[in-house]
Every structure is written in structure tokens, then in C-alpha cells.
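Late entry, evening session. Most of the bench is empty. Finally got around to the prediction I had been postponing all week. Sequence below, unchanged from the version circulated by S.P.
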Amino acid sequence: MAAFSHFFDPRRIRNSKLTRWFPWKVVKNRRGSDEVSKPNSDRTPKPNGNSSDKAAKPGRKPKIGIAFSSGGAKGLAHIGVIQVLEENGFEVSAIAGTSMGAYVGALWSSGIPGPELEKLAASMASSKDRWKLVDPVFPPRRGFIAGKKIEERLRSSLANKTFAQLNVPTYLVATEMESFARHVFHEGDVASAIVASLAVPGIVHPVKRGSREFVDGGIAAPLPVSVLREYADVDKVIAVSVIPSIKELKRATEASEKAARKKIPFWKRPFKWLNRHLNYFAHGNLLDILRASAMGSQMRLVEKSAAEADVFIRAVNPTGQWHDYHNYKIYVELGRKAAEAALPKLRELFETEIDSDPDTPSDKAEAILRTELPLDDSELALTS
């Protein structure tokens, strides 16, 4: 026992090579005698032991995402919103779009600025230009238009870019044909994803990608705010909708019916008769009914999605028709006015710094890997 005590005597090992093998060190106390100090003892200050010693993390500008709604020709108002964003130097970190919103959003993400987007809209203003994009299907068992010419036009405008080649992460929404579940395209070919997103049921033939078929994304998510929340690395979301509310549409319909009751000049009556009986796109005809039926559920879903956005921009013209492409100037100007009215909120959104905490784990990692999400119960109720 005496030999053991002698071996571990601090006075013996203080200058010995054995000190490297022991988890303590020998120091001199105030009286000049030896004592043992262990690491991580109470006398050793712990790093960051006091929260007041932590350095404050600097704030950062928020990452902003923007969601563009469906809406047919009315969706050309998105171009006006884009122009105002560009003129004020607002840059977004992610884009989500449905139907016409997917068309405009993807072209913008490919690098086409607002003024050039308006020129593209002008190229579809005349009936002759629009008929160039129509490739009729006969017999029209699953749709009147195949959509191949639209896809070819898109490939030319996009220079055959894939999602990976777009300027910012972009998410395009379609509806899976069999389950009617929301499907989010964010990988691979962009042009076919856009056509899938705007393939109005009964009008455009369903688009096949892989083993599944897709139709207009407006059926499942007409304003894809939730897509940005779930998939994109953003802090805040701007939502842009061109879809009227139920009350707005009702007032517009009543005004239209009142105008229709007015006496039509004699010379116009034959043309009105021909339009009603031969034009499938005319008000109250087959294709208009199909589009209007889809719009009914979209109006309710938009109200729900708008509540989830940080800034909501409404560029709504309830009297316009979904195929009103010749009135593109009206819609672009409508979008500009709506965005300009929202500028105070937009400046606050873009310029307000948020806390920077890079150590916070992302809860979107799993969602970003998914390519398909079913509707939740509330959305199913709204579409039934």
C-alpha cells in the first residue's frame, strides 16, 4: 500500500514523464505546496456557459417566393406584376405556378424579362396567331386540342431548358388524372410540364409523363402558395391571383345578363346566331361550360390559399373571358395597377430583415424530395 501511494505521489510525478498518461496536472497552490487539478473542473470556465456572452447573429434579407394562379387569358395580368417587381428591383428566390401562372412563371424563370413577356402575349393577340397553336384531335374523344403545337412553341421560347437550367427554383402544378391529386413538377423537362399544368379537361388532351397522365393544375391547386411553403427554401410568400371571388363573378354575370336583354340591332342578329351555334368557345357552349365548372371549385380554393400568403395581390377582372387573349394589354395593365397598389407591403416584405439562424434544421428536406402530394380532407370537401 505504501508503494502504491509513493507511485502516485504528486510530488514524485510532477517532473516525471508519467504526467502525460494522467488526466490531471500538478500545479502549485497559493501556499507553495502541490495539488492536483482535473480538466473540466468547476474552476475551468465553460465556453458559452452564459447566454449573455453569445454574439448576436446578424439579420438577413428574407427569401421571397411568388405563387402565380391559374386563370386562362386573365393570367396575362401576371406579366404586369412581374414588370413592377423588376422595375423596383425586387428579386424572388422561388416561383410556383398553376396553368397560365405556370406558363408565365416558367418563362420568367428562364430569363425572359417582363417587357419581353408582354411581346410574347402580343404574338397571341390575333385569332390567326392563336389558330396556329391549335392542333385538332379527331375524333375528340379526350379533348379537342392535342397540345403538341403549344409544346413546340414553348420549347422554342424556353430554348429546351430543364428545371435545373432555370434561374430560380421553379415548381409547376398539375393534377394527376387517375387520383385527382396535386402533382408538383420541379425536375426534368419544363415545356411538357407547362402543357400538363394548363391542359384544361375536355379541351386539351391529357399530357402523359412517364406512366401517368396529367390535366390542368387549377383543379387541385389554383393558387400554389402551399407548394412554396412545402417545397421551396423561402421565408415569405407573395400570392398573385386573377381568379374572381364568387360575389364578384355573380355581380358580373348579372350585369352581362342585363346587357344581353337589350335589343340587338337587326344586322347583328345573324352573326350572334352563328356564334352561338358554331363557336364551341362562346358563352354557354360546351367548352365554356367545362371551363366554368372547373372555375367553381377554384374560386373556393383560392380564398383558402390566399390566407396563407404574406402579401396577396388581386389582379381580377370578373367580366373577362378565359380565352380573351386579344385583350392582353388590359390584363397586363391590370396586373401593373394591382402590384403598384401593393408596393408599400412589398417594400416592407423585401426590406425587413429576419433573424439569421443557420443552425436551425430545415423541415422541408423531405418535402423537397417528394414529387406528388394528395389533397387534404378540406381540399377534397371543397372540390366535391
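Two things to note before I forget:
Residues 19-54, 358-384 have pLDDT under 50 and may be disordered.
The two ends are 88 Å apart (CA to CA).
Will write this up properly tomorrow.
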